[in-house]
Amino acid sequence: MTPVDRDILERLENGDENELVLTPALIAANTDWGHQTIREHVSKLREYGLVEYCEKERGIYRLSDLGREYLAGELDTEELEDN
Questions:
Q1: Which domains does the chain have, with CATH numbers?
Q2: What is the pTM of this model?
Q3: How far apart are CA 21 and CA 45, in angstroms?
Q4: Rounded distance between C-alpha atoms, residue 51 and residue 31, angstroms
């Protein structure tokens, strides 16, 4: 898990507010990371099941249940690497 990955998950979680559904471009616009970097990391996070498509055709992502578990400290990244 990299700082980029963590920032993506936290942006989708949106703190104490309602969770967000965002495209990689919108995630990039709301973080300090570039659009291409976000695209690459979102793809990996999706492979690991931490984010999922909200609307695949439009490339809109949301936090998955597994992503919520990770942010809550209930999931170790080593468990992800074993999959």
A1: 3-73 (1.10.10.10)
A2: 0.91
A3: 15
A4: 17
C-alpha to C-alpha distance for 29 and 38, rounded to whole angstroms: 10
Write out the two tokens for 17: 């507010």
- Give the pLDDT of the chain (83 residues) as one tens digit per residue: 899 999 999 999 999 899 999 999 999 999 999 999 999 999 999 999 999 999 999 999 999 999 999 999 998 877 776 54
8 Å CB contact between 23 and 35: no
**In this structure, what token pair is assigned to residue 76?**
């170790």
Q: What is residue 75's DSSP assignment?
A: -
Query: What CA–CA distance (Å, rounded) separates 31 from 47?
Result: 22
Q: Which amino acid is at 18?
A: N
Letter for the amino acid at 28? Answer: A
